[in-house]
Amino acid sequence: MGNLFCSQYPIHRRFDLKGSTFGRTTDKPESEIDPTVTLKDLDLNYLFRLRKSWYQEFCRQVDRDCDFLEQERIMDYSLLVGLHFRGISCADNLTPSSGRSSGTRTPTGSGNNFDDGAPRLSGVDVDHIVTDPNRWIHLGINMPARAESTVRRSSVSDTPQLVGEPTGELYDIFIFFGIIDILQDYDISKKLEHAYKSFQYDPTSISAVDPRLYSRRFRDFLFKVFVEDKI
């Protein structure tokens, strides 16, 4: 996490995403969620809109990585995602203002301290630096994008809705992401975990599944959360 989020921008929200639902929430009230809290799949309330070239490269890279991890019988990995909301200072509150808008906006501020100690560049025009694609912007690093707020429908079923419905409320962001936790193979302990939990819960909702199923579910989820920005 320290390597991935090493940036001149403070990370305002961070998510650990697997594409499963069982146990994938922080169960914390909004008032206790700050930039140091790592949120999970069922806490995610955004879609990430990438420009066409970045989206295509993202899809290619996820496919390559998942093919390799599946081949090596690796599972239980995550996509770690960090968001920096553009125009938000370290003293701003990230709670979005009420109401919906079809335009691009940034969350309003009300005085919470969001300085997470990330390195800053002193006396440098940062906005100018990060627009230099040859040096500072890479896939998953300092990427300009837009986040669209989502809401989940109320469900009477036991399986919660994994990806919410888009609201049209958009925010300019810099996004950081990378696949982490890539050393867990599908060994006997994970097979026993899968067998035990499958008796109690929906087998497709738990993290401990066969690498082939894990890879397919992981990709399907990411390709719903990351979408091409049509503008």
UniProtKB/TrEMBL annotation:
Residues 96-111 have a biased composition (Low complexity). Residues 96-118 are annotated as: Disordered. It holds the Pfam family PIP5K. It is an enzyme of class 2 (transferase). SUPFAM superfamilies: SAICAR synthase-like. PROSITE patterns: PIPK (PS51455). Keywords: ATP-binding, Kinase, Nucleotide-binding, Transferase. Residues 1-226 form the PIPK domain. The keyword Secreted does not apply. GO terms for molecular function: 1-phosphatidylinositol-4-phosphate 5-kinase activity. Its EC number is 2.7.1.68. This is 1-phosphatidylinositol-4-phosphate 5-kinase. It comes from Stylosanthes scabra.
